[in-house]
């Protein structure tokens, strides 16, 4: 699998890069818990963070004029262990300069076609709004507590009401995870694009509809394999989202994040128009090997590491 | 009592849910890459035996339940209550028909069984997987029949009725699987 990926990108003149796993700064996303370690130079010491993804460092390379790049590396997410999660996992992340999201989706489809020897069903592209409506009958973009509550009662998932309350983003996470995602990509690639703005993360907003973002997620057999964006290049908007996330972290008593000023400086300097995506390679391997659990495709999963 | 977070939910853990003692059967971690983590948990209500599925936000916690399984000897039935004794502590416990449930069909005086205690009171009774009981009532056997054929009902000393092969006679002892209620074999006295 790794060899095929490297050949795939070599043929397309995408440069393989390597960036630090340990960084002075951390991600700010309140949903991603990072590992903290300490760099000791007595009498001084300073915290260093293990990356939750190579995104920031790769964007700094892009801003420095690297052109299209890819990386295969480890990423670390604290507290994530389960059938589909291991706190240390392998990411394939790549960025294509001057690609919009549609071009990136085509490249993802081509890559999977090669990795799966053409044995997958024809890929499907569907908007978040459409697929959400299809399986829940609800409007994903406009939150209605009454409609959403009525649906979960009917679907025998009433816990959602107390868990999600009046948070639109939480409701979408819940409903998508339990009612939509399991149906996606039966033995084929399913690309869901046009995520609601409250799930935007590092994607830019859609030029025509500010309620949706230029974000895509990749699924096979109901398993989330990757997440891509038409990247946000607006430094002011990025700074605003960082600050909002740092504030959320404070409110929820999560470990404080250290804002990546280097990334902001790089954006200031100018990130080229580009699209990028990260795939969880362990999960791709799970699908390739038809394994029920991520532990089956790891040499030593977390509890035995 | 200790409090357990969703991260500690393991199969067999006993927790309190909606004021009832429950056991965790299965716990699946569900998390979108860029979103909230949840735990989808399969839980058995130890009072009713019903299995339900519940969803929690990861990190939420529930109070543990003071539930334990104790090997006890069944002593006797006084009409309202059945009495059991923990042979290590010699402490005696009584349980009504609601708690004993179907286990009552397989309990013979002096037999060992498992009593589930919640806050030191019997919550459920589980008989041994195999018990040996006497047939007190069944139709006479038919000569030449083997165990292959249809069989006939036989009433046991505890009140249970099981299907036995035609050659098995009244006052004989048989071995029964209490999980399925099926006849296993005759027992030589």
- The CA-CA distance between the termini of chain B, in Å, is 48 Å
Instruction: Assign the CATH topology of chain A.
Output: BirA Bifunctional Protein, domain 2
Low-confidence stretches of chain B at least 5 residues in length (pLDDT < 50)? none
Number of domains of chain A: 1
List the helices and strands of chain A in order: HEEEEHEEHEHHHHEEEHHEH
The value of Rg of chain B in angstroms is 22 Å
Gross geometry of chain A:
globular
The strand order across the widest sheet of chain B is 9-8-7-10-11
Tell me what the structure shows.
Chain A is α+β, with helices and mostly antiparallel strands. Chain A has a single domain, classed as BirA Bifunctional Protein, domain 2 (2-Layer Sandwich), CATH 3.30.930.10. Helix content of chain A is 35%, strand content 23%. Chain A is built from ten helices and eleven strands. Chain A has helices at residues 2-11, 55-63, 101-115, 128-136, 145-154, 159-164, 168-180, 235-251, 261-270, 281-289; strands at residues 15-16, 22-23, 35-41, 44-50, 69-76, 88-97, 121-127, 188-193, 215-220, 223-230, 274-280. An eight-stranded mixed sheet of chain A has the order 1-5-6-11-10-9-8-7, with helices on both faces. A three-stranded antiparallel sheet of chain A has the order 2-4-3, with no helix packed on it. In chain A, helix 2 runs parallel beside helix 9 and helix 4 crosses helix 7 (168-180). The two termini of chain A are 23 Å apart. By secondary structure, chain B is mainly β. Chain B has three domains: 3-63, SH3 type barrels; 67-127, Beta Barrel (OB fold (Dihydrolipoamide Acetyltransferase, E2P)), CATH 2.40.50.140; 131-187, OB fold (Dihydrolipoamide Acetyltransferase, E2P) (Beta Barrel). At the A-B interface, helix 6, helix 7 and strand 10 of A face strand 3 and strand 5 of B.
